[in-house]
């Protein structure tokens, strides 16, 4: 990944998260700026953007901050330089699998909700068409 540092405004634009939300995630320990400028401004890298995107994708699926933290910890450890024994690696992979399954279940619930919403909108559209005044010839 690129080691280029970006300020919080650029990160907010790229992730479509507000500055306040990014700062909140920092306060809760979900993300930490990779560096600070001489003036004290938060500086982020592509790795930080990727981390924020994981968080952003988990939020609408109903995951809690603790669950986000747990998943990020598991993926950080899997991606880290520390040597993991086979049992530890498998335990981490199982944690990730559990989150994947939970995400898949939430996605299915959202698909059902979306189908119902589309059906409702179609029903309203049909009702409007049925009751629209006839065009004059």
Description:
The chain contains five helices and three strands. It is mostly helical and 137 residues long.
Provide a quick synopsis of the model.
The protein has 137 residues and is mainly alpha-helical. The protein contains five helices and three strands, in the order E-H-H-E-E-H-H-H. It has a three-stranded antiparallel beta sheet.
Q: What is the molecular shape?
A: flat
Structural class: mainly alpha
| Low-pLDDT regions | none
Counted beta strands: 3
Give the topology string: H per helix, E per strand: EHHEEHHH
| Average pLDDT, all residues | 92
Radius of gyration: 22 Å
Number of helices: 5
**Helix share of residues?**
55-70%
Distance between the termini: 66 Å
Which strand-content bin applies to the residues? 5-15%
Strand line-up of the largest beta sheet: 1-3-2
The profile of the biggest β sheet is: 3 strands, antiparallel
Labels describing this entry:
single chain, 137 residues, mainly alpha, 3 strands
Q: How do the helices and strands line up, and which of them pair or pack?
A:
Blueprint: E1 6-7, H1 8-15, H2 19-27, E2 35-36, E3 42-44, H3 46-58, H4 65-79, H5 86-130
Antiparallel strand pairs: 1-3, 2-3
Helix pairs in contact: 4-5
């Amino acid at each position: 990944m690129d080691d280029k540092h970006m300020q919080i405004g650029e990160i907010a634009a790229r992730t479509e998260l507000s500055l306040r939300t990014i700062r909140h995630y920092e306060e809760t320990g979900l993300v930490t700026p990779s560096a600070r400028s001489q003036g004290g401004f938060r500086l982020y890298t592509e790795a930080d953007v990727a981390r924020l995107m994981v968080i952003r994708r988990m939020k609408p699926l109903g995951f809690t901050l603790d669950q986000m933290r747990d998943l990020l910890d598991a993926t950080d450890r899997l991606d880290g330089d520390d040597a993991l024994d086979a049992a530890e690696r498998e335990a981490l992979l199982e944690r990730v699998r559990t989150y994947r399954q939970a995400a898949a279940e939430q996605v299915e619930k959202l698909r059902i909700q979306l189908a119902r919403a589309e059906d409702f909108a179609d029903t309203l559209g049909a009702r409007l068409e049925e009751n629209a005044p006839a065009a004059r010839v």
